[in-house]
Amino acid sequence: RAAVLTALAAAALLIRPGAASAHAAFVSAQPEPGAELSSAPGVVVLTFSEPLIERLSSATVTDPDGRAFRGGPTGEREIRVPVSSNTPGVYDVAWVTVSPVDGHTLRGSFRFGVGVAPGPGSEGSTTDEPQPVDLLLSVGRTIEYAALLLAVGMLLLSRLARRRPTLAWVRPRLLPVLVVAFAGGTAVILGEAFLAGGAGSLSALDSYFLSGLPGLARLVRVGAEALTILTVLRRRSPVLAVGVALVALAAAGHAAAVSPRWWGITVDAVHLVAAGLWAGGILGLATLRPPGGWRQGEGRALLDRFTPVALTAFVLTIGFGALRGAQELTAFDDLFDTSYGR
Length: 342
What we know:
The longest helix is centred in the C-terminal third of the chain and has 32 residues, at about 295-330. By secondary structure, this protein is an alpha+beta fold. Helix content is about 50%, strand content about 15%. The chain has helices at about 1-15, 130-160, 175-195, 200-210, 215-235, 240-250, 260-285, 295-330, 335, and strands spanning about 25-30, 35, 45-50, 60, 70-75, 80, 90-100, 105-115, 125. A hairpin with a 2-residue loop joins strand 5 and strand 6 (about 80).
């Protein structure tokens, strides 16, 4: 079975769709960064790698006299700034983008000169190094992922324990795990939204969450995590709600940028569920204390039931993880030449 699953995953790599890019990153500009012009351009045009959230993305051109000219997206991946100045000197360009695909905020700047050389460092840079708040969001995201995967593993163990003969001692404490997942998810989406919206106005939050499928998926994800808690409190199985949360987790990221969209989301969701079954299952086993230990009796019986599922899920995780990576990368060299590949 493992060999068949591996072969199917390898075959799927051959029919992968076009690659998705990472973040709404700066691609090019007219005039080019560092250019020396004889006269000022009537408009500065910036092009980016992904679609932009219109109300949260902008650029500002500041002329040598300190006058600022502001512009916004005029196309799916383009920002235009009209410049009504021809003053000789150095012009500063600063931009900020928010991608509806992953919700990340990037900032950058560069300079060009009119009648003068703009000087060293005029090519500018993109501010994508993690800031303290980004590290906090990463911690929250890690907690949310780990809690959701642990929840999947605990649900699997509960199911395995109901097989005959039943193992009554297998009672994973699911509620605290789901509360942690909800808290982590809420902190992440609110933190990202306030970063993208600057002052955190209601209109900025609307733009962030209602800008497309990924934005809506973030709300659905947290809503599903809240529903898992309510379901457990009512002493019902939260399997469906956990599944919705994992699919929404996949739809809230770059998987939604794959064409066709359903294919990218499906691959990522299967990858997450499979990881939950084996990795989350192992974490779930670590929370249990079988009578007589794991090497004999009922503890050994649970391990025997868990092992075939875990091995199959492990192979699926590798196969669909490789497929997910192939959706993001266009060539083998991208494994070493891009931050995503590395």
